[in-house]
Amino acid sequence: MLRIILQRLLTAIPVLLLVITVTFVLIRLAPGGPFDEERAVPAQVLENLNKRYHLDDPIHVQFGNYLFHLLQGDFGPSFKYPSRTVTEVIAAGLPVTLELSVYALLVAVLIGITAGIVASLKPNSLQDYVPMSLAMIGICLPSFVLGPLLILGIGIGLEWLPVSGWGVSPGDKILPALTLGAGYAAYLARLSRGGMLETLSQDYIRTARAKGLSEWRVVWHHALRGAMAPVVSFAGPAVAGLLSGSFVVETIYQIPGLGRFYLQAAFNRDYTMILGMTILFAFFIIVCNLLADILAIWLNPKLRKNLEKAR
Amino acid sequence: MAVPSAKAGIVACCAFVFLLVCGCTEKKLSNVEYGNQNQIIYCGNGDEPKSLDPHLTTGSPDNNIIINLFEGLISKDHATLEPQPGVAKSWTISEDGRVYRFQLREEARWSNGDPLTAEDFVYSWRRALTPSVPNAYAYMMYNIEGAEDFHAGKITDFAQVGVKALSAHELEVRLTHPAHYFLQLLDHHSYYPIHGPTLEKFGGINDPASRWTLPGNLVGNGPFVLKNWEINKVIELAKSETYWDKDAVKLRGAHFFPIDDQQGEERAFRTGQIHLTNTPQMDIEKIETYRKKNPDVLRVVPTYASYYYEFNVNRKPFDDARVRRAFALAVDRKLIVEKVTKGGEVPAQNFVPPDPAGYQPQVYWQEDIEEARRLLAEAGYPDGKNFPVYSLMYNTHDNHQKVALAVQQMLKKNLNIDIQLENKEWKVYMMARKNLEHDIVRAGWVADYMDPSNFFDILRSYSGNNNTGWKNERYDELMKQIAAASDTAHRNELFEEANRLLAEEMPVLPLYYYSDLNLVHTSVQGWYDNAMHYHPLKHVYLQQPEP
């Protein structure tokens, strides 16, 4: 297991390097610079700014300097916010995005898996059709549609919850968590239903029922673990997706998370901020996939045996 | 069989309760209700401020906060915008209008208790003009003797610049020419004083990226102090206890939320999260709804700002003034403001808006389709025949798109000319415009101060903001004469000549003068409508009006 983790971490290094190089080049190819303003910036001011942030150096020198500082854990200064570093901005946004992702994951897991289990217990009945139809709607409804709908219905129509902000008004974290988690809940519902149906038809489940165990014990203690394998495979990319894909929800609800910073950095051509965020998100995706693989191996004895044989 | 689903339901319910608890804060009231009880105002504020350093800021969201943290020599009346005493309690102006002497208040203090002196202004203005500080508004100080040379690095001794502390509480400023609007400029953030010892502590006069503006570090001299700044979340101000006029300040605090989405800001207002929106524009669709259902909170105010299209006169066929005039004559501005923008904008037949208390530009042409067709035929395009395909570029925004669509239809109907609309992302748009890569491009100008020169100067041949390629020696000469003119009547005559020249040459196509559209809760008192979107919180307070 340790060897697999080390192998995966080693392969992550060239992947990260590639991500950095491509991002570094692409953002500089984008038209417009970080210091362009609507009103003409005097040439001298622009010159001073370029000098200060070393943008007047040849691009390979800039790249070398960036890597040198990165290796020391320094993401550089933000071009947009002169008194802040990229690390500070990330430190401000990361806890918010993590918190939002945890709530969304909670929504996804609790609603999704529950709905999947409920549906699988009576396949092709109303108990199956209703949650699965809702799941299909959830999959088809992107967050930029669901968000405004929830805002209109629950926030403005019923006046139950605030419609923007994060931790500034009572209950302002609920709608964002629901919006972000709903799509993943729908996927999880379908995956867990499929997994449960397959597991419930296994011989060991029949044996458990024949021994007179209650349906709750059969489902909870025997079927659930086996049914979760596809869910876990999905969970890794899903967690990475929640962390890196929250920018729509963060923008709709004006949440000060990483996604919103990322989007603003792209519009502002804040080179160092874009690079810092991209590296962080790439790192998240790699780590989440690795964790999902480890979890899958732990849950599935067959995979464990195959790995031992391969060794 | 029903047991698992019931248990799962309970678990799901628990999760929602958990989320609800997580979402709750101490307060049980909406922000507006809480604010009204505690004299704390909650404001939408557009984008996240770039900086709270008066010498680095460029945007309106930054300025909305800075005007509460600092105070210049002069402040402006919140309603009339007339200059009134700020840090300076009085001043004298020499007969030739070039030498100003300001008497500073002895009781003026920094937020850390230090006395505020004339030397503080000398230090601050030196820093504002220091070449290594990327101050985009340094040019606003070029009226001062030697300021431009110091900023360009031609002189290095600041003693040669026309700013001098005559005593601890007397400041002398010498100008290169009698700038009529100079007192107004003194309330611009580039002229605000900054606290030298704080700046020196966090990096010194040459360091533009120092951390002196962060909470706990910032020392200001305005009616409020910086209490908290959570990036992209909230900026909190508290009433200053050292401000010389603190008894006039009724608010205990202010919260500014960076809500960069107009719809989001309106929703936040509607649900009681903010007392007022601070983005000067709002969604067209919402304006009518507020007019009908909630007119008390909608503030529509004409502003000193112009919305126009710039021709690229270096490209055919826009190198021909007859074509440019034909376009201007063929657009129905009244229809645009009444049916498209619907926000109280005023149709514009001049580039420069009229100043209610000053220069009123004359109108030299009327919309006239027949005359437009004649001009176009004279230029070689009868009934629009052989007119090349060209594009109208604008930056991504619903309102700009709607206006461009209307203009496209009008030109097709009235002149039989086809036009392609080109929608560009903000930075791409700015770069294309600056490099004259357009045929026609949308533009807007919001005045920095109430003087026509602020608009006319844009079209000088070598102005960095002239994105038309239009160069006119006579116009440039007029601008020089205006800068040197001391007599108001003579100055207005020169303005009028420049205005006539623009009407003949038409390097820009005026469309309308902007209006300011804000939502302001009825409990907000002392927030006055004005033409400059100037809304300091010094005299604002919260009180629900009697029913």
Quick summary of this structure?
Chain A has 14 helices and no strands.
Estimate what percentage of residues of chain B fall within beta strands.
Answer: 15-25%
Helix content of chain B: 25-40%
Looking at how many chains there are and whether they match, the oligomeric state comes to heterodimer
Task: Using the alpha-carbon principal axes, give the shape of chain B.
Answer: globular
Mean pLDDT score of chain B: 91
The geometry of chain A reads as flat
Rg of chain B over CA atoms, rounded to whole Å, is 26 Å
Strand order of the largest sheet of chain B: 12-16-11-15-13-14
> How many beta-strand segments of chain A?
0
Spatial separation of the terminal alpha carbons of chain B: 59 Å
Unreliably modeled segments of chain B: 1-6
Strand and helix map with partners:
The complex is a heterodimer of chains A (311) and B (547).
Chain A: H1 2-29, H2 43-52, H3 59-71, H4 86-121, H5 126-140, H6 143-157, H7 174-200, H8 203-210, H9 215-227, H10 229-244, H11 247-252, H12 258-268, H13 271-299, H14 301-310
Chain B: H1 3-23, H2 31-38, E1 40-44, H3 60-69, E2 74-76, E3 83-85, E4 88-93, E5 99-104, H4 118-129, H5 147-151, E6 163-167, E7 170-174, H6 182-185, H7 196-201, E8 224-230, E9 234-239, E10 253-257, H8 262-270, H9 284-293, E11 298-311, H10 321-329, H11 333-341, E12 346-347, H12 369-378, E13 390-395, H13 398-415, E14 419-424, H14 426-434, E15 440-446, H15 453-456, H16 473-484, H17 488-505, E16 508-519, E17 524-525, E18 541-542
Parallel strand pairs in B: 1-10, 13-14, 13-15
Antiparallel strand pairs in B: 2-3, 4-5, 5-7, 6-7, 8-9, 9-10, 11-15, 11-16, 12-16, 17-18
Descriptive account of the structure:
The complex is a heterodimer of chains A (311) and B (547). By secondary structure, chain A is mostly helical. Chain A contains 14 helices and no strands. In chain A, helix 7 packs across helix 9 (215-227). Chain A is flat, with a radius of gyration of 24 Å. Chain B has 547 residues and is α+β, with helices and mostly antiparallel strands. A six-stranded mixed sheet of chain B has the order 12-16-11-15-13-14. In chain B, strands 1-10-9-8 form a four-stranded mixed sheet. The longest helix of chain B is centred in the first third of the chain and has 21 residues, at 3-23. Chains A and B meet through helix 2, helix 4, helix 6, helix 9 and helix 12 of A and helix 1, helix 8 and helix 14 of B.
